[in-house]
Design a protein that fits this description.
Elements (H helix, E strand, L loop, with lengths): L2 E5 L2 H4 L8 E6 L18 H18 E11 L3 E2 L2 E2 L2 H12 L3 E10 L15 E8 L14 E2 L2 H6 L4 E9 L2 E11 L15 E5 L3 E2 L4 E4 L2 H4 L13 H10 L5 E4 L8 H6 L3 E6 L2 H12 L6 E6 L5 E5 L2 H8 L3 H8 L11 E6 L1 E6 L5 E5 L2 H8 L4 H10 L3 E2 L2 E7 L3
Amino acid sequence: MTIDIREGDCFELIKNLPDNSVDLVVTSPPYADIINYGKNISIKKPNEYVDWLLPLFNEIQRVLTPSGSFILNINDNCSNGLRNPFIYELIYRSQKETKLKFYDTYFWHKMNGIPNGSKKRFRNTTEFIFHFVKDQKQLKFYMDRVLEETKESSNKRYKTPKYNEQGNVKDGERKREKVVWVRRTAMKVDETGSKDPDLVQRVVPELVRPDNVFRFPTASTERDNTIRHPAPFNRKLPEYFINLLTDEGDTVVDVFSGIGTTGLPCKELNRNYIGFELNPKYVEFSKKRLSGEELEDWVVCQYDLDDNLIGCYKNRMEASKATGIPDGDIMRTYNKTKFDSRGGYKWKLERKYVINQYDLEDNFIRSWNTITEIETTLGFDSHNHIEDCLRKGNPTSYGFKWILEERKI
């Protein structure tokens, strides 16, 4: 497995990838006209968005394997009181001007979507997920990996299912099955108004195919970042499609890699990952994040105005619930975008796990946030030695013990 973050323009970087070398491209391009992704990154307006993005589709089609897929998470916007139709133009023109094939449409239901300010619009809590393929007949698609348990509403329809004692033979073994008697047709009465007496036995499935609506919260509620990416998506989104559409050892590419979110499930699922990103700040953060130096767990810490620690919370919502201070104000305090303090307290975003330094007799010395901080402060010149202590169970290096532990409060 390899993790490769490349800095630069994805429209140029993708040209260096060989034909038929990528099993999955999953990405979320910059939103049109509304978000700042960095001073060197231009934001496209809706009327120029399709012309800008469409050339990338041709390159994606070229690098995909015949069994590969392209998953595109994207959303439209409103201007002058009307919905912009550029997303639909993108889909239509992609089928006229590229060789990618439009396979399916899914929807991301953001369970904590931000409400809009219009009194004449519903809350916008969905985004599009479009699925393109190179060859639908060779498509790699593992439905068995994403089957779900039947919902309670379905179970109620079956009322009280019984077991077929005889069962059916599966894999050489006779297995009992849940069954229910249902009418042969969907109609409960015939044309005369009489109930249809013709009943058939139906097997009640233990697992069913999922629907095409994916219910993930936005990344902001899953994790508080030390880096302020304007639109991070939930890691469960790429993880779902990596599991569904690829095998171990396959190559996954995110052409708008951002802070490397797609790379996280690639590491866990043993897929090779290539990420393209234009913003150097995000590139640096991604490399640390995917190497394990930037840990994924953070806590919101509450201090008094003299910097004495009062307590820590799992996230800003829990801090808000406990103190009555709006969670947005807490976030703007620790991000230092508006307040130095709020509600008579200072708020800081700190790692839940720290590297604790002990002497060889297990006496605590101090805590460190990162290996780089240890190297810089103490003058050590080997990053890998301390990293091996944290990951391989032998904690001793440089005459000290180094242990990754939850922050002491």
